[in-house]
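name: query_chain
kind: protein
chains: 1
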Amino acid sequence: MGVPADAPRAILVDKPAGPTSHDVVSTVRRALGRTKAGHTGTLDPFATGLLVVLTGRATRLAPFLTGLDKTYRATVRLGERSESGDPEGPITPGGPVPDEAAVRAALATMTGVIEQQVPALSAVRVDGERLYARTRRGEEVERPRREVVVHRADLISYDRVNGLVEIEIRCGSGTYVRQIAVDLGESLGCGGYCSALRRTEVGDLSVNSALAPEDVQPGSGISLLAAVGHIPRVDLDEVGLAEVVHGRRVQAPGAVAMGTVALAAGDELVAIGLADDDGVVRPKVVLVS
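structure:
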């Protein structure tokens, strides 16, 4: 089965600082002449890096990508505090910055399953309204706390003179890296905020393969099979393909573990299915007709 240039795609975009994630999706949509496109995980306007944009029917794959682990490079400015946790501010003076040993020790406490307070200027809803809206009105709002997973937080460099810490973080979905920066500064007693942030990986997908928004054109992107490469693959024969296209269950060839599987025909992703313990796969999201 060939893949036409206008087929549903997963496009890896290198978001620049400034525009919102929605702005970037709009740029991609205009470039492709499509009305349907969406991303699989927001980046704040000040942040840069990998934004996975799905087009056409591929938007149905978003639930299978949003929960992937992500890798970030963050610059933390110590010795100052920011109400937003990022350059938006307002920014106020903090205290004297510590030595590198103290920074390393503090970072070591920020891995594993940790409880994290949602930033004041976040889009989380509290009592039905976005938290950032209530914060900007000057309301005192109790910010929710969540458990998140930080697999590693590595110190890349530390410029003590300027109070700049560069770290690389691998974390689970839903982690606020700018809150990690704030928590690092508070644990050191000097304050801190995330002055720069770049997402380098979503699952196994890398920003090294991404395009600038203005470089996206019809035919851009990676195959949908590559986009869901983290999901076990099941190859369909012609009979199986015909059944799946119509949403019917199929017996998976070979041994398949229970759980989510990617159903493929040649080099094309046909559907995402759910395999039971008898090797029968029920299509959940069908991408071809």
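note: The longest strand covers residues 145-159.
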